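Lab notes, practical 5.
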Amino acid sequence: MNTNSEELYLEAEADIKNNNYAEAFKKYESILYEEPDSAPAHNSMGWLYKTQFDDYIKAENHFLTAMRCDPLYPHSYFHIAALLMDMERFDELEQHLEKCLRTRTIDKSWVYGRYALSEELKKNYDKAVYYFEKAILASQNDEKIKDYRNDIERVEMKTEIAKKYSAS
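Output from the prediction step:
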C-alpha cells in the first residue's frame, strides 16, 4: 500500500469502529480502485459484505481475493473460516483449516480451536475435546488457555446431556 492508501485504510478502520460503515465502504472502494491487490482492503470489504449486508458470496470473494493477494495476511483466513462455519460448509472448512496449519502467520491454537468448534457443531463431542486440548497445547496465552478449558467444560456438559437423552 502506498502512504495515501495506508492513511485511507486507517481512516476506514476508524469509521468501522464508529459504526460509520458507508464511509468505510467508500474508502475501501477507493483503495481497491488504486490498488486492486490490497489484501487488507479486500478483507475489510469482505467483512462489511458479511456483517452488514449478509452477502456471503461477495464476502467470500473478497476474503479469497485477499488470500491470493497476500498469502501471509492472516485476517482473511480467520474471516473465511467464520463464513464457512456460519454456512455449515464443514468439508470446505476442514480443507481451509488444513491450509491454515501450513500458513506460518496463523496462530495454530486458533486453528485447533476452530476444528474443535466445528466438531462441537456436528455433535462429535469427543473430537471437539481432542481439538480443544490440542489448542491448549499450541497456545502460549494464559487467557486463551482458560477459554479453551471453559470450552472443554461446555462440551463435556453437552456430552452428558446427549448421553442422558440417548438412553431414554
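Observations recorded by the TA: The chain has a mean pLDDT of 96. The chain is about 80% helix and 0% strand.
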